[in-house]
Design goal:
single chain; alpha+beta; twelve-stranded mixed beta sheet; 19 strands; globular; microtubule; Kinesin_motor_CS
Length: 464
């Protein structure tokens, strides 16, 4: 089985771009015996075009969607087959990659939240998972701790920061913990009793599909858009949407971990302060600036031990709370508990050094800040490609630390516990002739990550 799948979705010619050349990119899709598809592109016949060349991919694409295919068609082919894996407690990742204006946000999030056939993939998936949760809840008392629901998290990544789209666009920080896992934390709250609480990305508990739709719509409205090399309403951030099957008991247990951690912080700080105070008193500074033992003071070991014992006690409470979360996951009567779908609407890739095609509209000049953002986006996308390739080739070192994007996705690519993960990428490509270079670069990106994921059976079939 391939470690991941790569799909291509062609966008039709937008009716609003009537002034642009109506010629489409000449493309041919060839299916090979291993059921994978290769794509051949031919430069459009536009006068004075000299920098575009024909290109052909390897047979790496699982399926190609044409311009007339709807979101419903894409969902049936890409998302519906993996829902059983989510209902088995696994993590599945779906990433949309493409240049600005090629249809990534339309595919992943969608713009019509009322017409079922036009739902984006995430909303359609939430609809089906909510229906399955409702079916399983028929045997559970309404409002009980075992009632299944949808845990929704939605945030965007820009540079080295994250912004919680379900919590008033609160700025969060991306940090790697002592356990090697990446954590996204909000601002530090100092409580009246001295506790220090640092909340993770907010999880909105949704017990009906209407709850999911309302929260998702609110989050979408807060996503940042700016000018790109293609249009002035481009998504300039990577949006991450997590849909997880949860119970009230699981959410309460996770909140308990946060509370125990908030109790530990001031106690651990005091233990450190006590240790430093005692050791500083045990030394004095001489006239020549050297520190020597203070004969008039003996370190109060009992005070240090008392503070450290209290810290160890609180650390035990944190560990007990984390153990309770793991026990809930393992002992639940619902095998789907913790199953997760992660949708990533990647920021549009940028190509600043392309020559313009004759007949195309001139591009708006970008500010230095917009150019810096574009370079950061390209850095993130390059790092993502290298991580996917390294995972597919089973390399001993996976370069997750190359960018904040890959650091965040690490927990989804390699979920903790016994669950597995699956990843698919949807390449959104414009069929407009003036977008030939950007489209070819998008398919080249997919070709590079797809080649690494080819299995030996597929290679043997092509040789045959």
């Amino acid at each position: 089985m391939r470690p991941f799948d790569v799909f291509t979705r062609w966008r039709p010619l937008p009716s609003t771009e009537s002034q642009a050349p109506t010629q489409e990119i000449d493309r041919v899709h060839t299916r090979y015996p291993n059921a994978l598809v290769s794509t051949s592109l031919t430069p459009p016949l536009i006068t004075k075009i000299t920098h575009c060349r024909p290109w052909k991919s390897n047979p790496v694409f699982t399926h190609v969607f044409e311009g007339h295919d709807t979101n419903k068609t894409v969902f049936a082919k890409v998302v519906s087959p993996i829902l059983p894996r989510v209902l088995n407690g696994e993590t599945c990742n779906l990433l949309a990659y493409g240049h600005s204006g090629s249809g990534k946000s339309h595919t992943i999030i969608g713009y019509d939240f009322e017409t079922a056939d036009e739902f984006g993939l995430c909303l359609a998936a939430a609809r089906d998972l909510s229906a399955e949760a409702a079916r399983l809840n028929e045997a559970v008392e309404n409002g009980s701790e075992d009632e299944l629901g949808i845990g929704l998290r939605m945030y965007e990544l820009r540079g080295n920061s994250a912004f919680d789209l379900l919590n008033s666009h609160c700025k969060c920080h991306i940090r790697e913990g002592y356990d090697g896992q990446t954590h996204i934390r909000g601002e530090t709250e100092v409580m009246s009793d001295g506790r220090v609480r640092v909340r993770p990305i907010v999880t909105k508990a949704c017990w009906t599909f209407d709850d999911v739709r309302r929260e998702l719509l609110a989050g979408r409205e807060l996503r940042a858009t700016r000018t790109s090399t293609v249009h002035d309403q481009s998504s300039r951030t990577h949006a991450v949407l997590e849909i997880e099957l949860v119970t009230r008991a699981l959410l309460d247990a996770r909140d308990a971990v946060i509370e125990r951690q908030s109790e530990l912080v001031p106690v651990a700080k005091r233990a450190t302060d006590v240790y430093l105070e005692e050791n500083m008193k045990a030394f004095v500074r001489t006239e020549d600036g050297k520190y020597v033992p203070n004969p008039a003071y003996h370190i109060d070991e009992a005070r240090i031990h008392e503070a450290e014992a209290r810290q160890a006690e609180l650390e035990g409470y944190v560990q007990d709370a984390e153990t309770h979360v793991n026990e809930l996951m393992q002992s639940s009567s619902h095998p789907c508990l913790g199953g997760k779908l992660v949708f990533v609407d990647l920021a549009g890739s940028e190509y600043y050094h392309e020559k313009s095609i004759s007949g195309s509209a001139p591009r708006a000049k970008q500010t230095p800040q917009e150019q810096r953002e574009g370079r950061q986006i390209n850095t993130d996308l390059l790092a993502l490609k290298e991580v996917i390739r390294a995972r597919a080739l089973k390399q001993p070192r996976i370069p997750y630390r190359s960018s904040p994007l890959t650091m965040v996705l690490r927990g989804h690519f390699e979920p903790s516990g016994p669950t597995n993960s699956y990843t698919a990428m949807i390449l959104t490509a414009s069929s407009e002739a003036t977008q030939y270079s950007a489209t070819m670069n998008t398919l080249k990106y997919g070709n590079l990550v797809g080649v690494a994921g080819e299995d030996k059976a597929g290679a043997a079939a092509r040789k045959a």
